[in-house]
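Example 3.2
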Amino acid sequence: MADGAAPGARLTLERGVRLWRATLWPESWQETTAAIGWALGVTPPAPGASVAGAFGRLWRPEPLVWAMLDAPGDGPPRAFAGIGPETGAVAETGPGVARLAVRGAHAAELLARAVTLDLRPAAFPPGAVATTGWRDAAVTVIRPENGGLDLLTPLSFAEDFAAVLARHARQFG
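Structure, written as tokens:
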């Protein structure tokens, strides 16, 4: 991991994360979603929200799709173990993705200069997830329960995005 920027807004870039996606077929959506929640011991979150625990972080990035970040182990997350050809498809997408963790008192203010989301706590509370864009890349923004913001972006854009944010972060001391 590489660290940079000022104390008011600290940046950490992590290349290649553990990120899995499960695309479910419409006819099995409800049953398979219930099985995912049961396997994790949680109620699957509503769109725009995530749930985190020892299993990683689960959210729904688009209709019929679940994403799991930081799941322990080497293979697919255990919550996706029951998904087969008749219920959906599971793919690891993390090797092509970077996480840019933004921490500090000015994290949201810094990111407001780069993404088109309302990052105020009332509009984007802990556990919130949204996808927006930066230049030509999709950026998923997550507000972890322990503070700050995490951005998931294609690995090919990550270094440039981190450099732009680091330049803007200097103003926060």
